[in-house]
């Protein structure tokens, strides 16, 4: 766990993730301790508890399973993901859409590669601790239009984002953004927060670990992530194919007890 008072950009490569096969045709790469994999030094980052890269082969998926008191955000990279839950919600998530399941007091759901698909579905799923518990479960799905300035709000619990198109999180000090930049262009100014978690969904980018001459150059490829505290992660610039980044803005730590 990083000290939020110390500027740091902790780069984690996609190949370093713990890899599992929880069901036939399912491959998962975990950014944090998860299920049978436990690393006491890598349990969470702020209130973010999971960031999984999932691949479901045609016909494969997760059978019905239950969650409680968890905000679950899903971003599809390729293919189509079918969701169905015990409260009667159903949806198909495709690239350019974001899904939010707020588990509240408890809900069961299934996630499968859409029926009849001939290709895998690849997606990123992130689990966030809420700051209100035992609520009624809720579900949201929206298509996203990237903003011209390169910073698009996907989901938020922040008061200043109430009434926007963003899916509403049950975490009052967290927000998820889509950050985009054309080839060779700098990323837009990123929101400041105690913790920031950046996952590169596609393209490539370079950055400096901290501002100024002491900063060391680093590069990111798809699936890489950076855990950011303080003024680290300086001057990010998109690579030759542009960049699409999922960015968490997190203003407090995990709530314990």
Task: Characterize the structure shown.
The protein has a single domain, classed as Jelly Rolls (Sandwich). It has no helices and 19 strands. The strands form three sheets. Strands 1, 13, 14, 15, 16, 17, 18 and 19 form an eight-stranded mixed β-sheet that branches. The model has no long low-confidence stretch (mean pLDDT about 95).
Shape: globular
The number of domains is 1
Q: What about the largest sheet?
A: 8 strands, mixed
Q: Which structural class matches the secondary elements?
A: mainly beta
Strand fraction equals: over 45%
In short:
This protein is mostly beta strands and 257 residues long.
Notable characteristics:
0% helix, globular, eight-stranded mixed beta sheet, Jelly Rolls, 50% strand, 257 residues, 19 strands, seven-stranded antiparallel beta sheet, mainly beta
Task: Please outline the helices and strands.
Layout: E1 8-12, E2 18-20, E3 26-30, E4 48-56, E5 61-67, E6 71-78, E7 81-85, E8 90-93, E9 97-102, E10 107-113, E11 121-128, E12 138-143, E13 151-156, E14 167-168, E15 174-181, E16 195-208, E17 217-220, E18 225-229, E19 234-250
Parallel strand pairs: 13-14
Antiparallel strand pairs: 1-18, 2-3, 3-4, 4-11, 5-10, 6-9, 6-11, 7-8, 7-10, 9-12, 13-15, 15-19, 16-17, 16-18, 16-19
């Amino acid at each position: 766990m990083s000290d939020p008072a110390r500027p740091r950009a902790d780069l984690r490569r996609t190949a370093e993730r713990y890899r599992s096969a929880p069901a036939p045709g399912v491959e998962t790469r975990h950014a944090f301790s998860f299920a049978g994999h436990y690393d006491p030094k890598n349990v969470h980052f702020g209130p973010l508890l999971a960031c999984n890269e999932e691949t479901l082969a045609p016909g494969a998926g997760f059978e019905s399973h239950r969650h409680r008191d968890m905000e679950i955000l899903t971003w599809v990279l390729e293919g189509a993901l079918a969701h169905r839950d015990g409260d009667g919600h159903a949806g198909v998530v495709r690239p350019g859409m974001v899904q939010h399941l707020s588990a509240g007091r408890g809900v069961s759901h299934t996630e499968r590669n859409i029926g009849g698909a001939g290709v895998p579905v690849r997606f990123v799923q992130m689990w966030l601790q809420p700051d209100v518990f035992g609520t009624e479960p809720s579900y949201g799905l929206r298509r996203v239009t990237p903003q011209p300035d390169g910073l698009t709000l996907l989901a938020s619990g922040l008061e200043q984002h109430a009434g926007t198109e963003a899916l509403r999180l049950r975490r009052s000090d967290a927000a998820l953004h889509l950050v985009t930049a054309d080839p060779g262009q700098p990323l837009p100014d990123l929101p400041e927060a105690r913790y920031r978690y950046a996952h590169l969904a596609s393209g490539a980018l370079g950055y400096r670990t901290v501002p100024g001459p002491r900063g060391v150059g680093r590069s990111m490829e798809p699936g890489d992530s950076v855990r950011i505290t303080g003024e680290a992660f300086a001057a990010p610039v998109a690579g030759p194919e542009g960049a699409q980044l999922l960015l968490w803005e997190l203003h407090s730590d995990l709530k314990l007890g």
